[in-house]
Amino acid sequence: KRVIRCKIIREKWMLDHGLSNVMEVIKRKKWESLFKRRELVHMDAIKEIYARMTVIHLKKKDVVNTSVKGVAIEFDHLKLASILGIPGNNGICEYIKDVWEESKYTKPLEITRRFTNNETLTAARRVKSGEMKPFQRFIHFLVMKNVVPRFGKRDTSSFMDLTYMDHLMFSRLVNLPRVMMSHMSYVISMKDHELPYGDWLTMVFEEFGVPLVDKKGEEPKRYNYFKETFLTMCKLTRENEVWWIGSRENRRRDDAPEEVGPVENVHEEEEEGQTDFDWEAVVDEAAVEGESGSGEKFYDTEDEVQEDLRRRMKKF
Fold this sequence. Notes:
By secondary structure, this protein is an alpha+beta fold. The protein contains 13 helices and nine strands.
C-alpha cells in the first residue's frame, strides 16, 4: 500500500500568492503549526501501525490500539490532539460515506447549491470541481490532501468533502483528531486503500518511544508542498507576477482583491460570465462568536448563511 504524506504549508509562499485568507482559516482552526511541519516518513513503521491497528468507536470518543516494533500504542482523540498540537475538544467529526444526513449545521441541498453556485438545484449531489469557484477549489484540495487524504480523482467532491469544506469556509469547528481517527478506521477496513497521515504519524512514534531504525526516514520532496501546480488546478490566473482570481476576461485588474490565489484549470475552461464570491468578507464580517469560547466563529443558523450569501453575491 502507498503511504500518503500531507501537503506542507509555507506561509510566505501562501502570502506571496495571495492566499492570506486561506492562511487565516488555518490559523483560526489552530492547525498552522501542524500544517507547516516537515517530518520524516518512516515507511515500514507506517505500514506496521496500520497493519496492527484496531479502532474502538465509543459514544463520546474513539480509541486506537496498535503496536510498532514491539511498542504498544493506544490513544484517543484528545491524546492525538495533544501529540499533534491542535485542538480536539469540539467540532464536527462525522465521517460521511454514502448517506448525507441533515443536521444543525449541515444542510445538504444548501451546501450543494453553494458549491455549484446554482440556486435552482432541487436535490443534493456530489459537486464537480468545474462548478466551484477558485477559492472553493483550493479548500477542496486542502480537505483532500490534509483533512481526509487519499489519492485518486480530484475533479469531484464527496459528501464528506463538501461538509468539511463548508465548515472551513464558514469558520465552524472541525474536530480534526476525531476525523483522522475515523479516516484511519475506514482505511484499515479497505483492502487496497492508501495509508494517510504518513508524516504526522511520525510524531506519534516519537511520543510512544518507537525505535525508528537509525532515525532514517524519507524527507519531504518538492511535490509534498502546496505549489503553483495546485493553483493552476484551482483556476487562478497569473499576470505580471500578480496572482488573482478568475480569468482576465471575467475580472478587471482594479476589481481584483489584494488577497487572491492562483491558477488556471488544466481540465476545464472557465464558464462564461463566471465571477468570484468574496469568501473572505463572509468569514470576517458575517460570522458570529461561537459557544465554545475558543475564539472560533460560525453562523448561528443556516438562514444567516444564506442571507449573507445573497447579500454579498449582489456585488457581482
